[in-house]
C-alpha cells in the first residue's frame, strides 16, 4: 500500500552519523553463489529488504534450505535444485536477471513473474542467451517459464549488454555450474555499470571460480565447483548517498562508518562527485565524512559506470547554484522507472529547470517550491525527493514505501539523521 510522506525540512545543518544496511548487490550475489555451492554458507551483514527477501524466496522455491536471523542468512546443504517453482521478481533487476540462469539447473518447470513495471524492464537478452546455451525457455520477458533439466551444456554466447550490466553478471554467476562453463562476449554500445561486473568477477573468484576477464567485453568462466563462503557484506554505498547528500545540501556534516577502503561498489564514486560539487570529503579509518559547502556547485559528469547514483546526483544538481550535465545514462530509461523522464518531471514539477538529453540530463539552477514529488515505485526517486525536501519547504513524496526495495527503514533513518543520529 502506498503511503504519502511529508519530507522533513532540515531545521539546521544536519550533523549525524548514519550506519547504512548491507549492499543489495553484494547480498544478492552472495545468496546466489551460496545456493549454487550446494554446501552450507553464511551471509553476514546481509541486506534485509524487498529485493533481498525476494532473492531468498526465489532460492527457497528452487529447493535451497535457507534460514535467517536478521542480517545473518545461512544456506544449507542440498543435492539438487528443483521445480516446479514460482519466482516472484518484484521489481528487482538482480532477481529477474540472476535467477533464470540458476533455474535452468533445476529439475522441473520454473515460472517467473513480477511487478507490472518489471514486465517492461529489458530481459529478452538473458532469455535468448540461455536458449542459445541449450535451455528450454518460453517467453521474451516477464512472465516467462524455464523448463530446467538439471544441467545446461553452456559454452559461448554473444549478447548485447548495453541495456544492463546485469545481463552479464547474471550469466557469469551461474556459468561455472554449466557443463562446459561459459564464455560471454558483449557486442554493442558500451556496457553500463562495469564496476558491478567487476563485483561479480571478484565474488566468483572468492568462491574459487576461475574467471578470465583479461579481454575487454569478454568473460570466460571455467566449469567447476563453486565453494561455500562465509560472506561478509559491505554497507550499501549507493544507499549511503542520500545521507551524505544531506550534509552537502544543508552545509552540515554526515559520517558513514564501515566505508570500505577498497570496493567494487559504484557508490564509492560519490566521494569524487561531492568533491566536484564543492563538498569536503574525508575517509579515515573506515569512516567517510562529508562536510557541506556554503554553496553547492553544478557538475558535468559521465555517470555511465555509476548510473545507480543518478537520482541522488540529480537532486543535488537541482539544488546547486550552477548548471549540471549528467551524461552516459540513457540506460536509466529501463530502470525501476524511466529515471530520466521521472527526474525531469519531478524537478520541473517543483518549479525547477531540468531537461532530458539523448543520454542524460541538463539541470539548471532555479528556485524550487513546495509540491508533490512522485516516486514511480522507485526507491531512489523517493530518496531523491527526501533530499530536495530537506531545503525546500512543503515537499511531499507520494509513496515512501518504495524505499522498502533496498532500505525499509529509510523514513526512520532519515528522522534519526535529522535528530543528530548516531549510527
Ligand atoms: O548488478 C547489480 O547489482 C546492479 C547493476 C546495475 O544495473 P544496470 O547495469 O542495469 O544499470 C545497477 O544499476 C543496479 O542497481 C545493480
Ligand atoms: C537499478 C536499480 O535496481 P535493480 O537491481 O532493480 O536493477 C537500482 O537499485 O538503482
TrEMBL record:
<dbReference type="GO" id="GO:0009073">
    <property type="term" value="P:aromatic amino acid family biosynthetic process"/>
</dbReference>
<comment type="similarity">
    <text>Belongs to the EPSP synthase family.</text>
</comment>
<feature type="binding site">
    <location>
        <position position="24"/>
    </location>
    <ligand>
        <name>3-phosphoshikimate</name>
    </ligand>
</feature>
<comment type="pathway">
    <text>Metabolic intermediate biosynthesis; chorismate biosynthesis; chorismate from D-erythrose 4-phosphate and phosphoenolpyruvate: step 6/7.</text>
</comment>
<dbReference type="Pfam" id="PF00275">
    <property type="entry name" value="EPSP_synthase"/>
</dbReference>
<dbReference type="InterPro" id="IPR036968">
    <property type="entry name" value="Enolpyruvate_Tfrase_sf"/>
</dbReference>
<feature type="binding site">
    <location>
        <position position="380"/>
    </location>
    <ligand>
        <name>phosphoenolpyruvate</name>
    </ligand>
</feature>
<feature type="binding site">
    <location>
        <position position="164"/>
    </location>
    <ligand>
        <name>3-phosphoshikimate</name>
    </ligand>
</feature>
<comment type="function">
    <text>Catalyzes the transfer of the enolpyruvyl moiety of phosphoenolpyruvate (PEP) to the 5-hydroxyl of shikimate-3-phosphate (S3P) to produce enolpyruvyl shikimate-3-phosphate and inorganic phosphate.</text>
</comment>
<keyword id="KW-0057">Aromatic amino acid biosynthesis</keyword>
<dbReference type="InterPro" id="IPR006264">
    <property type="entry name" value="EPSP_synthase"/>
</dbReference>
<dbReference type="GO" id="GO:0009423">
    <property type="term" value="P:chorismate biosynthetic process"/>
</dbReference>
<feature type="binding site">
    <location>
        <position position="308"/>
    </location>
    <ligand>
        <name>3-phosphoshikimate</name>
    </ligand>
</feature>
<dbReference type="InterPro" id="IPR001986">
    <property type="entry name" value="Enolpyruvate_Tfrase_dom"/>
</dbReference>
<dbReference type="InterPro" id="IPR013792">
    <property type="entry name" value="RNA3'P_cycl/enolpyr_Trfase_a/b"/>
</dbReference>
<dbReference type="GO" id="GO:0003866">
    <property type="term" value="F:3-phosphoshikimate 1-carboxyvinyltransferase activity"/>
</dbReference>
<feature type="binding site">
    <location>
        <position position="193"/>
    </location>
    <ligand>
        <name>3-phosphoshikimate</name>
    </ligand>
</feature>
<feature type="active site" description="Proton acceptor">
    <location>
        <position position="308"/>
    </location>
</feature>
<feature type="binding site">
    <location>
        <position position="405"/>
    </location>
    <ligand>
        <name>phosphoenolpyruvate</name>
    </ligand>
</feature>
<feature type="binding site">
    <location>
        <position position="93"/>
    </location>
    <ligand>
        <name>phosphoenolpyruvate</name>
    </ligand>
</feature>
<dbReference type="GO" id="GO:0005737">
    <property type="term" value="C:cytoplasm"/>
</dbReference>
<feature type="binding site">
    <location>
        <position position="29"/>
    </location>
    <ligand>
        <name>3-phosphoshikimate</name>
    </ligand>
</feature>
<feature type="binding site">
    <location>
        <position position="121"/>
    </location>
    <ligand>
        <name>phosphoenolpyruvate</name>
    </ligand>
</feature>
<dbReference type="GO" id="GO:0008652">
    <property type="term" value="P:amino acid biosynthetic process"/>
</dbReference>
<feature type="binding site">
    <location>
        <position position="166"/>
    </location>
    <ligand>
        <name>phosphoenolpyruvate</name>
    </ligand>
</feature>
<keyword id="KW-0963">Cytoplasm</keyword>
<protein>
    <recommendedName>
        <fullName>3-phosphoshikimate 1-carboxyvinyltransferase</fullName>
        <ecNumber>2.5.1.19</ecNumber>
    </recommendedName>
</protein>
<dbReference type="InterPro" id="IPR023193">
    <property type="entry name" value="EPSP_synthase_CS"/>
</dbReference>
<feature type="binding site">
    <location>
        <position position="166"/>
    </location>
    <ligand>
        <name>3-phosphoshikimate</name>
    </ligand>
</feature>
<comment type="subunit">
    <text>Monomer.</text>
</comment>
<keyword id="KW-0808">Transferase</keyword>
<feature type="domain" description="Enolpyruvate transferase">
    <location>
        <begin position="11"/>
        <end position="412"/>
    </location>
</feature>
<feature type="binding site">
    <location>
        <position position="165"/>
    </location>
    <ligand>
        <name>3-phosphoshikimate</name>
    </ligand>
</feature>
<feature type="binding site">
    <location>
        <position position="24"/>
    </location>
    <ligand>
        <name>phosphoenolpyruvate</name>
    </ligand>
</feature>
<feature type="binding site">
    <location>
        <position position="339"/>
    </location>
    <ligand>
        <name>phosphoenolpyruvate</name>
    </ligand>
</feature>
<feature type="binding site">
    <location>
        <position position="335"/>
    </location>
    <ligand>
        <name>3-phosphoshikimate</name>
    </ligand>
</feature>
<feature type="binding site">
    <location>
        <position position="25"/>
    </location>
    <ligand>
        <name>3-phosphoshikimate</name>
    </ligand>
</feature>
<keyword id="KW-0028">Amino-acid biosynthesis</keyword>
